[in-house]
Structures are given as C-alpha cells and as structure tokens.
Amino acid sequence: MSSSDEARKARQVSPAGYIWVTRFALILLCVIVVSGAAVRLTGSGLGCSDWPRCNSEKFIDVSTTHGAIEQINRLFTGLVTVIVIAAVLAARFRVPYRKDLVMLSWGLVAGVIGQIVLGGIVVLTDLHPLANQGHFILSMVLVANALILHQRAKTDRKLDRLSTLSGLQKLVRLTVVMGSVALVTGTVVTGSGPHAGDEKARRFDVAIITVARIHGISVLVAIALLLIVAWKMKQQRAQQLFGPLEMVLVIAILQATVGYVQYFNDIPALLVGIHIFGATMFFLSLVNLWMVSNQIADANPEMTERNSAIVS
User: Fold this and answer.
1) DSSP secondary structure code for residue 174 in this structure
2) Which residue in 41, 154, 258, 295 has the most C-beta neighbors within 10 A?
3) What pTM was computed for the model?
C-alpha cells in the first residue's frame, strides 16, 4: 500500500464515528441555547459592549460578572463553530460517502455563521427584541438541522422524497406548523417581558397580557391537534408513531404548566430559563415526529397509499 493510500485510509470516518460527531453537534447546539438564555436572564446581554471584541480595550474581558457570563457564551459559540466544521469534514471523509449528509452538515455551518452575524447585530443594536427574537428562531432551525443530520446519519441510505402524503402525515405536518407558531408567539412574549438582558434594553410595545393570551391559545391549539393525531393514529394502528407522539404531548403539557406558573408568579428568571430549554425540547420532539412519519412512509409506501384511501 502506498503512502497516499495509507493517508487516505487514515482520514476515513466510519458511519459509527460520524454518528458521534453529529450527536456532539446536536448537544452543543442545545447547550448554546441555554447559555444564551442565561446571558439574557442574568442581565448580561451588554456585559460585552462590542463585537467581536468584548469592549474597545480588550478582546476578552472577564473582570465583571456580566462580562464573564457573556464571554462564556461566546466561548460556546467558538466550540459550536469547531464541531460544525468537523461535521462537514467528517461527512466528506465518511465511508460510504453520502451527499445528503454533506449538504445537511453545510446547513449547520451556514446557520452558525448566521448566528454569529445575528449575535453581533444583537449587541450593536443594544439588545433590540426583534434581533433577539431572530437569534432564538435561528437557533431552533439549527437544532432541527442537527437532529435531522443525526437521524439521517443513523440510517443506511438517503430517504426518498415523498411524492404523496397520507391524511395522517398531513395532519402531523399541520401540527408541527402550529407548534412552530406557538414557539414564535412565545418569543414575542419574551420580547415584551421583563427579561431583556439589560435594564436599558428596548421591549416590544405590546401589553404582555395580550401576547401571553395569544401564545397560550396557540399552545392549546397545538395540543388539541396532537390529540387529534393520536386519535387518527389509533384508527390506523400506526404503532411506530406512538412513542414520538407521547414525547411531544408530555413536553407540551409540561411546557404549558411551566408557562402558566411563571406567568402567575411574576415571570421569575429561573422558570423562564426552564421554559426556554423546554421550548427547545418541544421543537426537537416535533421535528422527530415529522421525521418518523416520513420514515414509516418511506419504508412502507403501500401503507401511505392505503392510508390516503382510508382518509379520503
């Protein structure tokens, strides 16, 4: 074996090894959502007054508590950047090569670059709530991308794009959309509430009681749709979906409980942090439900046609 062949073999990544890379990327992307929330909830949003430097005098400054918290969050951003680059490189050298995994890993890189830019905008606009809102929503897109990449990496082949959808699959997708609406309305509540990241930061000029009601209604509608999905699944005996659906329902109910408790207790920072973590888990469970419904149809195309006939 030549030296070039040996070098090529040394760079090869096994499917099992790549699964570990994607798992680590998913975990870090969830961690940075929580660390970003900690920055905001501790009032450390302007702990560093500049970007990418901490301030005009120092690139890194941990002389204050707020500055240290913000710097830790930026450190996590650096770690995430490293792991998503590793995901791209590992996908490139994975054996067997899968183009879909390479494209999904590049999606992580694009998302992280977007987050770095948005992070700068958040600081330079003095924590404008719209910039903060975009920061969180892009985080949800990123964790969804990471979950899809991780789940795809665990399969032996690329899943085919579905040409037809059963009634149950359409209902699942509608539920995911409604759950996403609940997530977005939640960011408006946060942008109207007391935890701005700094005492002088702007807020949305909307009464929090109004947006909280809209958010609450969207959550209840999403839960109602989940119950309808459960009823349809029982009718069609879609056993594979029961586990993912139960996970979504449990998280949704816990989230609703935490939301109401925090609202009636003057929105304590700790409960808000738990709620943000729960929102991340809720969205991931929704994406997982969507993916499992697609995998079942991909593995059993005749079942999709039969279910479409039953629903129609």
Assistant:
1) H
2) 41
3) 0.85
